[in-house]
Amino acid sequence: MNRHENRAKEYLLHMLEALGRVGLYTAGLSFEQFLASQLIQDAVVRNIAVVGEAAKQLMDAAPEFSQAHPEIPFAQVYGMRNRVIHGYSTVDPITDWDSVQVDAPELRRLIVAVVDGLPDELRRA
């Protein structure tokens, strides 16, 4: 186990934690309920930013790891972070809802598969 692999796992776990929060905050909500709650929208956007920042940190700290796992769209995830952080005035709740309903569960599934495939010493770390 090298230091870069351990850092990569750490960032993947940060991503999973934030994705879990997104799922928790939106579980059982309709789109109309999501639109009606600025609090939930803000919480979702913040966690999208956390996921994207962790993706960027992983790419920087362990570029060989991110390149070895092209199934996880690290650069696109970071791009979404940039959109919600820097383009805050143009954040679209419809796009955010689509991300919550489609992209977040798929990203979570991909990350879990990678974490589950890590050597035992990394999965326990």
Please explain how this structure is put together.
The protein is built from seven helices and no strands. The chain has one domain (3-119). The chain is globular. The chain has 125 residues and is an all-alpha fold. Helix content is 82%, strand content 0%. The protein starts with a helix and ends with a helix.
Topology record:
Elements: H1 3-26, H2 31-36, H3 38-61, H4 63-68, H5 74-86, H6 93-116, H7 120-124
Provide a compact summary of the structure:
The chain is 82% helix and 0% strand.
Structural class by secondary-structure content:
mainly alpha
What ranges have pLDDT less than 50 throughout 5 or more consecutive residues? none
E-strand count: 0
Mean pLDDT: 89
Proportion in β-strands: under 5%
| Main sheet: strands, sense, barrel | none
Helix content: over 70%
Name the helix and strand elements from N-terminus to C-terminus, one letter apiece: HHHHHHH
Query: Alpha-carbon distance between the termini?
Result: 10 Å
Tally of helical runs = 7
Highlighted features:
mainly alpha; globular; 82% helix; 125 residues; 0% strand
